[in-house]
Amino acid sequence: MADANAAVLLVTVSLVLLGLVAGLSWSWALLPVGVVVFIFILARGLKSRDEFAHLNVCVLVLGDLGRSPRTKPHQDLLEDDRIEILAIAEHKGFPFGPPILRYVTKVISQSLQLLYVLMKLDDQAYILLQNPPGLPSIAVTWLASRLIGAQFVIDWHNYGYSIMALSHGEKHPIVRVAKWYEKFFGRFADHNLCVTEAMRRDLRKNWNIRASTLYDKPPSIFRETPLKLRHELFIRMGSAYPQFRACSEDKENTELTAFTERNIETGEVTLAVGRPALLISSTSWTDYESFVEAGEHLPPLVCAITGKGPQKEYYEKLIGVKEFRHVKICTPWMEAEDYPVLLGSSDLGVCLHKSSSGLDLPMKVVDMFGCCLPVCAIHFQCLDELVRHEENGLIFNSADELAQQLKLLFLDFPNDHGKLGVFRRNLRESAEQRWDENWDQNILPLFKEHCD
């Protein structure tokens, strides 16, 4: 019980300080006192770990689960028919007042709601939290884990404060508070996971947090696509995007796409002679200038740029005014079940992801490698933990360098004896571990310790 009392005190003091840093009056900053009363009411249900008879794990993500590609497999591997999803409604704080007031009230509201949801959980041996976002979930989850007797595990995908710094700047008071918050409360986790060796070293050196590296691995749905499925996908996409249609009419007894041919009588599908290469890039459309610039110098290509983002319309207009001689570009929004099929049907992937901290790796490339799809990726710190230059792809630093790499890779296309074919064969031979195998080998033993 003393552990729970200390937890309550630390969280309350932190919320008071957050309010004062935000410039709130003492009357507002003392609002967390009400949190204390609320917590002690909930604490009546305090449980001991010894009461748990089964291994129950709560996987917690404060955000859209569909946009959490690493947390979703965690959940899948714990579920079968035993999973229970508890939705947490979004709270936006006060709809009026200065932005800082709305933000602080949102944090306090989320804290109370999250604590209430976690305290209702029965017999949880572990709470596995995705970070980011960590404000307010790290402190609240730690507090709840102390109250219900669960082990607290943080899965560090990145640093939340580094993402906030992209829009506010590193010296903004909120960013500084967020950094202190992550660093301070992150140390209270019972176990820590992270996505790269570089992050593991950084956590140990700068934050005094010991973590185990769990690399992202592709789910089993990401694999090379058989020719029949490729053809069916290209037919469907051709109805909306002319870039996937054949330039000529269907030949007798043959159904054509820009990339494949199907014999109507036998059903046999083959790759079309003289087909263009298919390049895919998934993006949030935040900085795509380098790719557009590179497009002016490319060999015959169909470029499918998937994803959504705030600047998508801007780049679509920019692409529209360009007069590429050999390149056709479309910007489809793929259904979840079609995206892996398109990746597995492509000839090359391009990744323009840059980590806000320089310590996490792009899931897009992980999925591409699951499809044995070679990649050209823009350089940043620790990328070499995933992309091995001249082995499974190429790393570039500028639009000109990307353009030169694309011309080099597609020099003999579709002949597979060049670099592109070598990279694909290397990916096939590596037989990279899948997410479920990785999880069983590295994470399941951690949870099973509770039952031993």
Summary of the model, kept short:
The protein has about 450 residues and is α/β, with parallel strands linked by helices. The protein has helices at about 1-20, 25-30, 30-40, 70-80, 100-120, 135-150, 160-170, 175-185, 195-205, 225-240, 290-295, 310-320, 340-345, 365-370, 400-410, 420-430, 435-440, 445-450, and strands spanning about 55-60, 125-130, 150-155, 190-195, 210-215, 255, 260-265, 270, 275-280, 300-305, 325-330, 350, 375-380, 395.
- Judging by the overall fold, what is the CATH architecture of the largest domain? 3-Layer(aba) Sandwich
Which structural class fits the helix and strand makeup?
A: alpha/beta
Mind telling me the CATH superfamily name of the largest domain?
A: Glycogen Phosphorylase B
Instruction: Indicate how many domains the architecture comprises.
Output: 2
Number of separate strands: 14
Q: How much of the polypeptide forms β-strand, as a percent range? A: 5-15%
Mean pLDDT: 80
Q: Spatial order of the strands in the main sheet?
A: 11-10-9-12-13-14
Task: Indicate the overall shape.
Answer: elongated
CATH class categorisation of the largest domain? Alpha Beta
Terminal residue distance: 25 Å
Unreliable residue stretches = 44-53
Mind telling me the C-alpha Rg?
A: 25 Å
Describe the biggest sheet?
6 strands, parallel
Instruction: Quote the CATH topology of the largest domain.
Output: Rossmann fold
Q: What's the total helix number?
A: 18
User: Portion of residues in helices?
Assistant: 40-55%
Pathway: Protein modification; protein glycosylation
Protein name: Chitobiosyldiphosphodolichol beta-mannosyltransferase
Subcellular location: Endoplasmic reticulum membrane
Keywords: Endoplasmic reticulum, Glycosyltransferase, Membrane, Phosphoprotein, Signal-anchor, Transferase, Transmembrane, Transmembrane helix
